[in-house]
Amino acid sequence: MARKRILSGMQPTGELHLGNYLGALKNWVNLQADYDCFFCVVDQHAITVSYDNKALPKLVDDLAISYLAGGVDPSRSTVFVQSAVPEHTELAWYLATVTQYGELGRMTQFKDKSEQTGAEAGASAALFTYPVLMAADILIYKATHVPVGDDQTQHLELARNAAQRFNSRFKKGFFPEPQGLYSATPRIMGLDGHKKMSKSLGNHIGMLEEPKPLWKKLAGAYTDPQRTTQDEPGRPELCNLFRMHTALTAADRLPVIAEQCRSAAFGCGHCKKELEASLDRELAPMRERAKELRANPERLREILGDGAAKARAVARETLREVRELMGIRGPSL
């Protein structure tokens, strides 16, 4: 029996931060053991809003390096750049014929992102329809599962609806209806403790951050607002740094850290130093792998080229079948 298949990707905004790693990438790495994995850099999604076209190629490379440094293994997974597989955008057009306008209008992320441009009227048609491209990203590989966060549930549901409608109209069971895979890692907030970790907000720790700047950020990180002195008991269940501990520190240490916090046996500075050690154990090997890839750009080109070739072989076959079912002749593949 064939293994179940995963498709996932991130937009190229450069190197990943700790929230990206703990919330998504670390989960991808673990999933490689049990799934046929396709991981892409979704550069065509990145151009739905205003962007720097000269900076984009480097941002794509930086994200690909983060994938590989973080543990995505090109010998076990297919790693590629979305735009290197043009079948994504062609399938998106075909799926648009079975997607309802009202569905796209209800997408909360469209409303959020269009507000960032100034007004919905100023948003591009690509921003409005990009959930259809996201559905195509998934369905072109007939993915059975998609690792997603809570904010992507709407988009996954749209992909499922598109698969259902296509299957109903053209061939029962042709596309799998992809299921979500949700990470067990608690949501990591930014170092300010109030908002989601984000590079644009400056409240992040870089996944490949060097030790000195990492500690400088960690030392000033927000903790329990009611614990104003070391002598006051803390509430680890409300502390963002303790959430990081749960994802990074050895499981047998967590009850000890929690109890020492509650009993005021040690202060937040002690907790931060222990978290720094956990971060260094996790991130140091990634920094080394990233340095090796940056020193050997030909290797990165080779990995992404091989990944694109593998992805296109699957995507071509899916698109050939789609055209045949829809009665579209298209070019000879």
Notes on the protein architecture:
The chain has 333 residues and is mainly alpha-helical. It folds into two domains: 5-188 and 297-326, HUPs (Rossmann fold), CATH 3.40.50.620; 211-291, Tyrosyl-Transfer RNA Synthetase, CATH 1.10.240.10. The chain is 52% helix and 8% strand. It has 13 helices and five strands. The chain has helices spanning 18-31, 43-46, 56-69, 87-96, 101-105, 108-116, 125-139, 153-169, 211-219, 240-248, 254-262, 268-295, 297-326, and strands at residues 5-10, 36-41, 77-81, 145-148, 179-182. The strands form two sheets. A three-stranded parallel β-sheet has the order 1-2-3. A two-stranded parallel sheet has the order 4-5. The two termini are 28 Å apart.
Keywords:
elongated, mainly alpha, Rossmann fold, 5 strands, Tyrosyl-Transfer RNA Synthetase, 52% helix
Rounded radius of gyration (Å): 22 Å
| Run of helices and strands | EHEHHEHHHHEHEHHHHH
Helix amount:
40-55%
Q: Just give the CATH class of the largest domain.
A: Alpha Beta
Which percent band covers the strand fraction? 5-15%
Q: Mean pLDDT score, rounded?
A: 89
Q: Could you give a short account of the major beta sheet?
A: 3 strands, parallel
Q: What is the number of E strands?
A: 5
Number of helices: 13
User: CATH superfamily of the largest domain, called what?
Assistant: HUPs
Spans of at least 5 consecutive residues whose pLDDT stays below 50 are none
